[in-house]
Amino acid sequence: MINSNWFNSMFIGEVAARSLNFLWNPRMWSRRAVSSGLLLTASLYVLLPSVSRAFNVKKGPLSIEESKRLDRFTTGLLNARNDCFLNSSLQALVPIESLTTYLNQFVEALHSVDEGQVFELERLAPLHANLIKLLHELQSLIVKPQTVSAKNIVKTLEDTLRRKMSSDQNDAHEFTQILLETLHSEYIKLQSNIEIGSFPFEGVSSNYLMCLQCNKYSQTIHSPFLMLEVAVPGNYSEKLTDLILHSQDEIIEGYSCLYCKVNMILKNEKYLNQLPEYSQEEQSILNFLRNQILTLYINDDLPADVSFYVDHYSKNGCVTANFKSNIIKKNAVIKEPASLIVHLSRSIFNGATITRSACRVEYEQSLNLQRQVMINDAFERTEPIKYELKSVVKHTGSHVQGHYQCYRKKPDLMKERNTDTIVNRSPMIKKYSQDKFDASKIESIITGTSKRLYKRIKSLAAYPYWHISDTNVKEARTTDVLSEDKYVYILYYEKEKP
Ligand SMILES: [Zn+2]
């Protein structure tokens, strides 16, 4: 692992970009792993039905029947076969405010057009339309246990990708990637039809190489990403931020650096200066190199004759073909997503079999990262970015079988001091506004709520999360969520508002 003090704040790995390319290709729907990233992206599977296993709702006076509290229950998802990977992945998206705000732009567009155009927009973006319906149900405040099905989401994905979701296609990370990728391709289509802001999960990383011999750079390549891939080692424990930082740099040995080779040639020629008779062709190549060297990238494309000359240069013991140096592959986030999804790849390949890393990955409610500011493709400075934890998907079991569950942040409810009216300060999906609960008792988003008028809800302060295992919902403390270090599989963070 390299520790570069001058440049220590990138947070996107190459694997993420690779996986992204793979997932942006719908033909790969039935494949399980990226060939080049096989070990890192191998999936965690579910083979057993997951109903209620190892997950018992505490029996209390209010646990089964109704609760007066609006933060006691939330809607669970049916598990028809081995759907816990799907249910957990979808539940995790519910509290992501930037997603809600983003989808509401689509809702507004639907409201502002006539019926025929509604049909056209829903045809363009069927996953948007169905996700809006589902998230609306999952965001609605309820007073007693309730369950819905996510089968429309599966059907939409199957129709869009013209593939059946196979019964062994059940890794939560893979499902989430495919879901995001499909949403993103719909987003591209929507952009030319409605006014819509940026896609909440899309970030841009910039990847480049630096030669450790000459300290020169390669040209920079910008790649979009939707999810951050982090490989979890077989160690006893690691901090999430360390894993993220370390996943960004990679040392490559035996690189044939163009700058170093040209530099060698020009130094050697300076030494040999008066000795040989140059052909006109060689003279012009050398002049070309002298002119270019100051602006040369370590992987520049040179004209074929120059390139051949550089690669086959051999004079006076100076042989460029023998020259190799070590380089660092750097990955930097230059545009961070509003919502950062981090996948902890826990699969370890020992040469024969794949096992699951039980490394304890310590994570906090706050995630402090840094954005690289690049000017003219050169590193300029870093700027801090702060993310806040919204959801966690955990996986228990082995590499080949297990169960997925989700922790999801409750909405930001407060109580009006005078009337005891509950106010939901989290944005909610706008469509289908008939709440199951008596809507008159809930005001939806109130902006600029004064603290004097509202008070905290004690149960929500004590239990800020729901722990959801398919249809079973119980309340969870922050410490419950953060103690899942052995089982945490996907983390959902949202950028803190300034
Ligand atoms: Zn070099």
Question: What does this protein structure show overall?
Answer:
It is a single chain. The chain is of the alpha+beta class and 498 residues long. The protein folds into 2 domains: 348 residues, Cysteine proteinases (Cathepsin B, Chain A); 67 residues, no CATH class. It contains 14 helices and 24 strands. Strands 5, 11, 15, 16, 17, 22, 23 and 24 form an 8-stranded mixed sheet that branches. The chain has a 4-stranded antiparallel sheet with strand order 4-3-10-7, covered by helices on one side. A 4-stranded mixed sheet has the order 20-19-18-21, with no helix packed on it. Strand 22 and strand 23 form a beta hairpin. Helix 3 packs across helix 8 and helix 4 crosses helix 6. The radius of gyration is 27 Å and the shape is elongated. The N terminus is likely disordered. The structure holds zinc ion. The site of zinc ion (ZN) has 9 residues, from helix 10. This is USP domain-containing protein. It comes from Kazachstania africana (strain ATCC 22294 / BCRC 22015 / CBS 2517 / CECT 1963 / NBRC 1671 / NRRL Y-8276) (Yeast). One of its GO terms (cellular component) is mitochondrial outer membrane. One of its GO terms (molecular function) is cysteine-type deubiquitinase activity. It holds the Pfam family UCH.
